[in-house]
Amino acid sequence: MHIGLVIYGSLDTLSGGYLYDRMLVRALEAAGHRVAIYSTPWRSYAQHLTDNWRAGWQRQLLTAAVDLWLQDELNHPSLFWLNRTLRRHHPAPTFAIVHHLRSSEDHPRYLLSLYRRIERAYLTTLDGYLANSATTHAAVQALLGAPRPFTVAWPGADHLPAPAEMDAESIAARALLSAPLRILFVGNLIPRKGLHHLLDALTRVSGNWELSVAGSYRADDGYAQAIQRQITTAGLAPRVRLLGRVDDAALVELYRRHHLFAAPGYEGFGIAYLEAHRFGLPVIALTTGAAREVVFAGQTGVLIAPGDRAALAAAITRFCVDRELLAGMGMAARLRYTLHPTWAESMAGAVRW
After folding, report:
1. What is the signed CA dihedral for 71, 73, 79, 84, rounded to 10 degrees?
2. Is the pTM of this model over 0.90?
3. I need a labelling partner for 130 at 20 to 30 A (CA). Which of 17, 50, 137, 205 fits?
4. pLDDT digits (tens, 9 = 90+) for 279-301
5. Within 13 Å, how many C-alpha atoms sit on residue 320's CB side?
6. What secondary structure does DSSP assign to 102-133, as a single string?
């Protein structure tokens, strides 16, 4: 089968969503299918809406020799109207990979109304969709209001090099024998990831802690600059390291050296949560989104309500002072990881579907 994959930018873009797309393409090609990439450049949401009437983009899709369209739902503003033409004049069915809905994010009310309308219009053009979590599937069904064929295929976390010595003894020794509490945040610097909330909460933590932030600054320059100002203004510079984008080998070392993973932002799944569990790190995440599909509250981490910075600070403080809790949750987190499907297992199910 010849599959046309529609994305923004490059398939090598650094994010959990693009990692998922790469793993799916790899599995499809291993099963004997051909995958061709159809890409438009990253622009603003309003500019992407104009893609629906851009003649060159229309012609490229309408004349494509593909048997099936696979569209990253992130591209919905460029396709919400064009897909209607595609369905009338192209024989291939249209499916989407849904990582999370834009209308599930935190935006001003007037924008959320627009996003819901555009996103619903896009979803109605699909013959089916592949969701990365049960949470994402439920959000799609709620917005659509009518069933569509679907499957859920969770991401894995075994794409990173295997961690050495991540047994119960080494996890306990790291928690009990080393100070200060080393906290890790992994994610591109964009508002949805919630780094500003984490920094604000850390100003309320009196214990001994350090924070490392691994993620690209390029996704949102304005937000990255605001984060740097926040760190300076709050006097956190001696205790916070902004590392920028790191390669897989460096990321493994960060996971191995740190005690706790904290990322209080909305996620349609949260691959980094599972990565952290693989290395025996408890996770602090939100009660919203799909974190609860990875993090078992009170066992492998802590789930807090969005915007509850006092609860976030209290959770970090508790880990600072109760290292036995840190060790116990770390060992439980590692066990939770071992029970999760691998990328190969999960993507094989998606390919069969």
Report:
1. 80
2. yes
3. 50
4. 999 999 999 999 999 999 999 99
5. 16
6. GGGS---HHHHHHHHHHHHHHHTT-SEEEESS
pLDDT tens for 90-142 read: 999 999 999 999 999 888 999 999 999 999 999 999 999 999 999 999 999 99
DSSP 73: G
Residues 6+ apart with CB under 8 A from 103: 112, 115, 116, 119, 143
Q: 16-30 vs 271-278: helix axis angle to the nearest 10? A: 80
Half-sphere exposure in the Cβ direction for 12 (13 Å, CA): 1
Note if the bond before 191 is cis, omega within 30 degrees: no
Residue 283 CA, distance from chain mean position: 14
Q: What are phi and psi of 288, to 5 degrees?
A: -90, 170
Q: At 48, is the secondary structure helix, strand, or coil?
A: helix
Contacts of 266 (CB under 8 A, 6+ apart): 100, 104, 105, 106, 192, 194, 286, 288, 289, 306
| Residue 186, helix vs strand vs coil | strand
| Integer Cα distance of 16 and 219 in angstroms | 13
Q: What ranges in the chain are assigned the alpha helix state H?
A: 16-30, 45-50, 55-62, 76-79, 82-89, 109-123, 134-144, 168-177, 195-202, 221-233, 248-257, 271-278, 309-321, 323-338, 343-352
CA dihedral 51, 55, 59, 60 (to 10 degrees): -50
In single-letter form, the type of residue at position 243 comes to L
| Rounded CA separation 79/58 (Å) | 10
Residue type, 122: Y
In angstroms, the CA 353 to CA 350 distance is: 5
Cα–Cα distance measured from residue 294 to residue 299, given in angstroms and rounded to the nearest whole number: 11
Q: How far apart are CA 61 and CA 82, in angstroms?
A: 9
